[in-house]
Amino acid sequence: MKKKILLLLVAFVATSTIAFAQGRNGLKINEVMVENNNSVVDDYGMRPAWIELYNSTHASMEISSVYLTNEKNDPTKYPVPLGDVKTNIPPLQHVLFWADNEPNKGTFHLSFNIAPGDTIYVFDADMETMIDSVVIPKELGANQSYARTEDGAGEWKIRTGSEDIENDYITPSSNNIIKDTNEKVEMFRKLDKNGVVLTIMAMAIVFGALLVLSICFYVISKVGEKVSKINKSKSHGVEPKTIANTDLPTGDSGEEIAAIVMALHEHLNAHDQESTILTINKVKRAYSPWSSKIYGLRELPRK
Length: 303
Known about the structure:
The chain has helices spanning about 1-25, 185-190, 195-235, 255-270, and strands at about 25-35, 50-55, 60, 65-70, 80, 90, 95-100, 120-125, 130-135, 145-150, 155-160. It is of the alpha+beta class. It folds into two domains: about 1-180, Lamin Tail domain (Immunoglobulin-like, Sandwich), CATH 2.60.40; about 195-270, no CATH class. A hairpin with a 2-residue loop joins β10 (about 145-150) and β11. The chain starts with a helix and ends in a 35-residue tail after the last helix.
């Protein structure tokens, strides 16, 4: 017994470790800006360089034990502190770190600066596993960012923030691709201009749900009927397995019920109390005191 418990514990720890490691692999460097003159400001109103991390998984990710650095030989240059609830990144969301070399300002202020040509690394808690890295191009200019074409995936591209170029936005703490419309909705609108298909689909869903409910109620009623027959046969001292389903007793006959009622009435002066039958018992008093006229007569004074 102890060996089985130990094996289960080891398997649970191993599974949790694998899942934890796989979750950390979903942490990606998503966008970087080195010289920030007119972009986003930090919580002190300053405009330092920033690094955007992205949780590419569909589960929350705690990053309080990872390391950020710009030197591969010094992987623990900035350990993300413990105890800050903001280090728990929601699914498919972003978080900004400020590369201002002022870690005393808070959790998201790094202990180093970055410059064009630097390499940014993210190491896991074991200080050896590299989760992600990116080389900042030397030609990256002021107020330009180096970002992935898609969140957590795709190629890297220099963005200038020009409105004349498609998907050239600088997007700190936001999606790298800004979508104005939903492609599926637009396609459905073109294919079904009058909404006929949408109406048919909606009605099919409603009637399908009703059909499933009716099937469930039918099955439940049959199961209840089967159980009732089995209990009835046991009350008669008959094993259900020894007789066919058609021969199982379904209930008392009318003659049996009438005999029981007569016996109750003759011997106990009572009858069977049914939950679905209104029972009225006769009151022994010939009148009700509150409505008796004798209480309304004026009495003569006694001498």
